[in-house]
Amino acid sequence: MMDIRPIRTDADYEWALKEIEPYFDHEPARGTPEADRFDVLATLIEAYEERVHRIPAPSPLEVLRFHMDQNGLTQADLAHVIGSRSRASEVMGGHRSLSLAMIAAIRAAWKIPADLLMSAPVDVATE
């Protein structure tokens, strides 16, 4: 039952995915050997994906664009939040980083977590 091995290659990864798949249709009862096997496979798969198939975090601009698109917001709405049409245009055009003051305003108005809006370097001006 515990025929588990390290995931070192894509072939090992494919094997593990195939092995774990039945557990999604029929989740094993807690405390059983099948539940232990499911947990170990899930942990191994997660570690391999984190190491090999890591998805990079989106840029603050990508986060902002996604939020605006999903909520029907426009550049004019952003300008209202950060206080300037020209700054909104520069930010959306990728020509200006968000300042801490802009991040705080966006976070307060649109409830986007500040850490998603930060990237190095951050303009510390209070604009």
From TrEMBL:
InterPro entries: Antitox_HigA, Cro/C1-type_HTH. Residues 64-117 form the HTH cro/C1-type domain. It comes from Gluconacetobacter entanii. Signal peptide: none annotated. It comes from the Bacteria. This is XRE family transcriptional regulator. PANTHER family: ANTITOXIN HIGA.
